[in-house]
Design a protein that fits this description.
By secondary structure, the protein is an alpha+beta fold. The protein has one domain: STM4215-like (2-Layer Sandwich), CATH 3.30.2000. Helix content is about 20%, strand content about 35%. It is built from 2 helices and 10 strands. Strands 1, 2, 5, 6, 7, 8, 9 and 10 form an 8-stranded mixed beta sheet that branches. A two-stranded antiparallel ribbon has the order 3-4. A hairpin with a 2-residue loop joins strand 9 and strand 10. The longest helix is centred in the N-terminal third of the chain and has 15 residues.
Amino acid sequence: MTATTAVQDWLSLKARIDTLVTDPVLQRFEPNAVVTPPAGLAPFLLISDVRNDNDRNGWVSSDLNERSGTLILAVQWPLAAPVSHVQLMQIGGTIADHFPADLCMGRLRVTRNADVLQPYVEGAYRVVVVRVLWSSV
């Protein structure tokens, strides 16, 4: 995968992320951003994109390489801020609903409905992770 292809893939994912509306509004931190949690007890969203090894589907052109990965959206909710397990799952569900199976994002496609993982506690935050599997079209 060339750097240009990786950038184009990320921009396709980012364009979809940018249309995500949550309640409450979550400040977003993209991959490799310096994470400075918002002031007070505001929750926020950490965004990661984990790439898989390319699968080569032919001998003639590198354009036939299938790219895939996992977009990880992690809601970070301060322990000192009140929220129930159900509320966290609902927020995760709202995010997951934004990435339905077969959604096309430029040259990428969501391969199945996004998964909402069980919330857990890490450090000073409750965390709920939404996992979005994608591949090239």
